[in-house]
Amino acid sequence: MLRVYTCIAHQHNFLFVVIAGMICLLATLTALSAFQQAVREASRRATFIIVAALVSGLGIWSTHFIAMLAYEPGLSISYDVSRTLLSVLAAVVICGIGWTVALGKRPFMAPLGGAIIGGGVGTMHYLGMSAVKLAGYIIWDHNLVAASLILGIGLSAMAAWLQRRESTLPVWAAGSVLALGICSLHFVAMAAAVIYPLRTSGVAVQSLDSQSLAIGVTVAALSIMGVGAGLVMFDRRLAAAQLAEARQRAALADQIVHSTAERNTLIEKLRYQAEISTAALDNMAQGLSMYDSQNRLITHNRRYAELYGINEELLTPGTPVIEIWERVVADGTILQSRSIDIPVIGDEDWLKEHEVTLSDGRIIKFQRQPLPAGGWVATHEDVTEARRTNQQIAYLAAHDALTGLPNRATFSTYLEAYAKDGRAFAVHTIDLDRFKEVNDTLGHAVGDEILRSTAVRLLELTGENDVVTRLGGDEFAVLQWDVDGLVTPAAFADRIVKRLAEPFEFKGHTVIIGASVGISLAPESGICCEELLMMSDLALYCAKDESRGTYRFFERGMDSRLCERRQLEEDLRVAITEGQFEVYYQPLLDVSKGTITSFEALVRWHHPTRGLVQPADFIATAEDTGLIIPIGEWVLRQACRDAINWPNDVGVAVNVSPAQFKRGDLIAMTMSALTAAGLAPERLELEITEAVLLHDEAWVQAALKRIAALGVRIAMDDFGTGYSSLSYLRAFPFNKIKIDRSFIADIVGKSDALSIVQATIQLSQKLGMEITAEGVETAEQMNVLVEEGCTTVQGYHVSRPIPVSRVAELLRFYNTGVHTSARAAG
User: Fold this and answer.
1) pTM (predicted TM-score)
2) Is 160 within 8 Å of 171 (Cβ atoms)?
3) Backbone angles phi, psi at 443, to 5 degrees
4) Which residues contact 781 (CB under 8 A, 6 or more apart)?
5) What count of other Cβ atoms lies within 10 Å of the Cβ of residue 46?
6) Over the stretch 686-703, which tens digit does the pLDDT of each residue have?
7) Following DSSP, what letter does each residue of 11-43 receive, concatenated?
8) Which is nearest to 433 in space by CA: 491, 517, 494, 493?
């Protein structure tokens, strides 16, 4: 308890704590009043339960976020919009379930319903805490977390029991207990959260600052709770007035039936009363009809005729109810006469609340009550929109709004059910490989279309008992039920990879993204649904880390590799901040002149403990995390600064990643780097791979032409390893082709590799482009290339990558004749 007191006293603003408590108390009192009305009035029970759910759910939600404004951890806090909205939906829905359960007549139903409401408080709090975005991370004290849930659920159950069973107690007594449960859960849970700040952390783009959200929540909560309280008071008065009127008219009807002598007087009184009440009856939202003991119509209001489309001529006093409903069936308003049973004396079933669906899809709820003098009165209400709204809310709570697939919570329910069944099944976690690039380049509209189309393709691949879900973002999952059939988990994952690798066509755009899949098996991997998802996620990370566009099964030890990857990512962030990178340069040799024409800039990482880290060990991680963008910009600027000190006929080549290109500011960044260094544009060469060209060719072509117009040279790197290189050579302004090292490695002794190299050299000559062979490591390879007409070579045979301090020495060796003299002397 000392920790809870310390949290409230030293980490909260007391004024906001008081405000949160007042809102909480007001919400609980209003919700309990609505619940009390629901207990008393069965005819409007659903309305009052909805009011109680809305008021309690919004009150809990408002209390949480006002109290969060009071929380002062010393860090800037913002909130994720989608999870914040999801938290209020969860609070309202779960509270509604709790109030409904508490209406049960059995003794344990009231505390059970209260416990569900307490569970809703806990769900809302921890879901709301998951929406918190701050420059740090939260560690939870599990003992205090458990204590918070026990307090919230226990006190909520006690409050519901007091309100339902101890009718002599005032509302404020149970309301105070419920408010205490809500506040106890919140502040004990806040004491359970320990925040550790991070050195560097971003803030989510789609987030709200805490003060703006708290002000909005306060205004909304007070307004809605005021409306709820007003509705409860108004409905109490209306119900009392209607009850008094019904009793009065029932007494009059009883006198009509049993006293012939007083009939004329009673009829006059009824007419007098009808003149007074006709306006009120005809403006009621509900339809009303009254019948005598022989099931003949006594009176009705206008809404009754409108609901069923009954002709007013038929609704004359004395018309039998069977005649009215036969006409309604004949007109096609109701499909069959049994939709509404005719009352039978002594049969209590017809007194229950009923619903009938009309032929136009409308749903009418009606309830009949007996009159003291015989006969009965019925109310009719159009609940179509309310039912549709409830169905929509239930659907949205269980499905992803964009794709219509079951959401993560629903998917977890399926996992738990399948796991309890005991049969073997597989969980496939799927991540789209290049979705972020598409979203950033072509916009969210195209990105949403890709997500919807991905859902359609996955549904086409799955079987009848399989379940497809969208977990969030560009991540999907499939529960494969029949793993012992013809389609094994491996074969199914392979189908997914191949199907999602096929191009997407949207409004003139051809998009190729691909996907990676992680697989966990039950019961081999475990039967806990969260463990299965975690294991398939680990397998997915390994698939993406090793080679995108593939699948991996979960294996023991993958979690350690994931930790290593996360540590590498954190080290990269530190390296960018502390400037641990260095540019090495590998020369490109003109074989006809024997001189170096340019150097390719290659980044190296001087890790404080691991030493010199090669690009192959960290570039993939940098690409996946987006850290390649600041690294690539630094390399470009540093290469331009270094090249200004070289001879004017020696250029520098810099690799450009797809992430840099797709961000859209490459042209401005290139101009800035050239201007800052004072380097002539024609001395800079940008090397791009075909991955840059895969999405929107028109946009990429325009950008490359603008870069070429500056005078900057453009080279296609790794030629021959992509999808449609020849078409790219025609469409884009390339100055140079670089033959991939995989062909050069086999050029001696393998005729197919040599044939490809010969064809590429001839193609470059026809197109007037320079040709460079990468990965030349032996004199024999170099001699073959020279004989075939290759103009420039690059590789260890010429020189390994060297630091900038050795560039001048290498230039003197090659470009001043030393190399030629040495070769002649040798």
Assistant:
1) 0.43
2) no
3) 100, 165
4) 744, 747, 748, 773, 795, 797
5) 17
6) 998 766 665 556 667 778
7) HB-HHHHHHHHHHHHHHHHHHHHHHHHHHH-ST
8) 517
